[in-house]
């Protein structure tokens, strides 16, 4: 008889399976993306993202208090301003919507890690991530505005700034501006590997940021490219990034794994709006076990090498983790 190994021995009981489990999802891993709308009273549900809403400042504080009680430790903020202009000036205004949201969160829970998305697309009427001149998205003139935005977030109390624009050189510009203004301790989490993905659709409703002409393929990456991801990540580290992000998460776990092998810095992955909404829609129809699917996804992100998971599922995952502790 040909000898064989009895691998099932290690799977025989729940406690044995727990004993040899290689990857676990913790509350510490989760970052909750939140949308804050200037002038909004209360909340405004986002139709394409069941369970997710835009928040006014008072509602934001209440939600932060509630989520802190179940273990939330980190958020990333996206702002929806009342007014937009071609230079995205509300992105870096001292009393802009994100700046005021940072102050509100820190007043409610000073220990919460506050990350901020640094981009221009929500703040200009054309919905582009860079400054537009003569119908083109121009790289170098955009860098000054991104740096001003990052500094304004730091001044308001942000712990981490996360440039998502995909302009060349933006990490170097932001690092130089932060350091020159005395914010050497503010961390840069770079959206180093951000693909021109079809999974972003619901987000563009949530953030009112759909491009009004063309697309974003001249600065976001081609989904077919993997080696390019390594070049982008390496450049951002050389420019001063402290952490790297892959976006989206689910369709690009191979890229997360490649970054994990190559670099010894914290790696984040963004479980984006389309990935979230597909799960929610299927769960609402009774086609899947939502909790089982979501936890399998979270575990897969960890297995691929992610240290941080940005996900709209965060409140549900926190509740499930707490239930499991009882």
Automatic annotation (TrEMBL):
PROSITE patterns assigned: D_ALA_DEHYDRATASE (PS00169)
Keywords per UniProt: Heme biosynthesis, Lyase, Porphyrin biosynthesis
Catalytic activity, reaction form: 2 5-aminolevulinate = porphobilinogen + 2 H2O + H(+)
Pathway: Porphyrin-containing compound metabolism; protoporphyrin-IX biosynthesis; coproporphyrinogen-III from 5-aminolevulinate: step 1/4
The enzyme's E.C. designation: 4.2.1.24
Highest taxon above the source species: Bacteria
GO function terms (MF aspect): porphobilinogen synthase activity
General function of this protein: Catalyzes an early step in the biosynthesis of tetrapyrroles. Binds two molecules of 5-aminolevulinate per subunit, each at a distinct site, and catalyzes their condensation to form porphobilinogen.
Family recorded in the similarity comment: Belongs to the ALAD family.
NCBIfam families assigned: PRK09283.1
Summary of subunit composition and partner proteins: Homooctamer.
The name this protein goes by in its record: Delta-aminolevulinic acid dehydratase
Source organism: Alicyclobacillus sendaiensis PA2
Lineage, top ranks: Bacteria, Bacillati, Bacillota, Bacilli, Bacillales
């Amino acid at each position: 008889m040909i000898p064989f190994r009895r691998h099932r021995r290690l799977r025989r009981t729940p406690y044995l399976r727990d004993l040899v489990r290689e990857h676990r999802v913790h509350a510490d891993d989760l970052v909750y993306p939140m949308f804050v709308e200037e002038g909004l009273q209360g909340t405004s549900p986002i139709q394409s993202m069941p369970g997710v809403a835009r928040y006014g400042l008072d509602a934001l504080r209440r939600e932060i208090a509630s989520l802190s009680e179940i273990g939330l430790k980190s958020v990333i903020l996206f702002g929806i301003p009342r007014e937009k202009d071609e230079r995205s000036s509300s992105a870096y205004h001292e009393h802009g919507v994100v700046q005021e949201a940072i102050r509100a969160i820190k007043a409610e829970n000073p220990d919460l890690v506050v990350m901020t998305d640094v981009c221009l697309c929500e703040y200009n009427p054309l919905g582009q991530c860079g400054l537009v001149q003569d119908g083109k998205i121009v790289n170098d003139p955009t860098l000054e505005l991104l740096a001003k935005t990052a500094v304004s977030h730091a001044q308001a109390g942000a712990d981490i700034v996360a440039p998502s624009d995909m302009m060349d050189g933006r990490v170097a510009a932001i690092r130089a501006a932060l350091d020159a203004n005395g914010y050497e301790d503010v961390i840069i989490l770079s959206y180093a590997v951000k693909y021109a993905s079809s999974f972003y659709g619901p987000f563009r409703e949530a953030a009112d940021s759909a491009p009004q002409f063309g697309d974003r393929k001249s600065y976001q990456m081609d989904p077919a490219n993997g080696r390019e991801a390594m070049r982008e990540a390496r450049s951002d580290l050389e420019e001063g990034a402290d952490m790297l992000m892959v976006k989206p998460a689910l369709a690009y776990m191979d890229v997360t794994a490649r970054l994990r092998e190559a670099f010894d810095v914290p790696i984040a992955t963004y479980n984006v709006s389309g990935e979230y909404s597909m799960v929610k829609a299927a769960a609402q129809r009774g086609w899947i076990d939502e909790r089982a699917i979501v936890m399998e996804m979270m575990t897969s992100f960890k297995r691929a090498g992610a240290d941080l998971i940005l996900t709209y599922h965060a409140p549900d995952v926190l509740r499930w983790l707490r239930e499991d502790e009882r």
